[in-house]
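Meet our chain:
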Amino acid sequence: MRLADATWTDVRDADVDVAFLPIGSTEQHGPHAPLGTDTLNAVAVAEAAAAAYDAEPRAGVADGVSRGEALVAPPIPVGVAEEHRAFDGTMWVSPDAFRTYVREAAASLTAHGVDRVAFVNGHGGNVEALAEVARRFSRDPAHDGYGVAFTWFEAVGEHAGDMGHAGPLETALLRATNPDLVREDRVDDARDGGADRWGEWVSGVNLAHDSEEFTDNGVVGDPTAGDGERGRELLDLASDALAELARAVVDREAVDRQVENDG
């Protein structure tokens, strides 16, 4: 279920197990990919994972608990992205503002009985803040919510080492899910003007705080190495991993409730 497309009565009458909250960024992705790349990719993975989750109805781990459905919340499109501030169109908020907004947005779902949330992340700059959000959300005494943070490009197996920025993985996933938004006539220039790695590293420390310090056009990695076939494989890997995570989160809740009932 896509929350933004549903009516309030649809949500009231639904049996929702878990919500996927896509979280991205509005930031430069080189000359060939849109500013909304991270958000678009997070949404694509969340929607595919919801379909995978819904396609496998089965008994829960506790007697009498059956599998419901996954809900996909509207995406949060602005994140922790000040490192891209030199490139036009980039938007960002402070980590404090980001953490508060995301946590409170997720907490609003618990008021309607949706108390299991997976934060589906598409931007590397959000990772650290989202880990804290998931912990604080799960520990909040004001509700019974439990959340986990999931970053799609960390869940694609051996492909993960090619992540870069606006490089092969992000470009591939866009080509598979939003091909009309990739400026194909600029991909070669994106590759030629990009950097080989993220940052300037000495003794395990990145000396570069902003991306303009090591990439002229915002690209890290080779976007020509990310075709649509690879993108479809990435989508399958990431969405299957997220669906598996969601089942574990929901089964964990079932176990907790069974323990409470038995006690």
User: Anything to note?
Assistant: The mean pLDDT is 93.
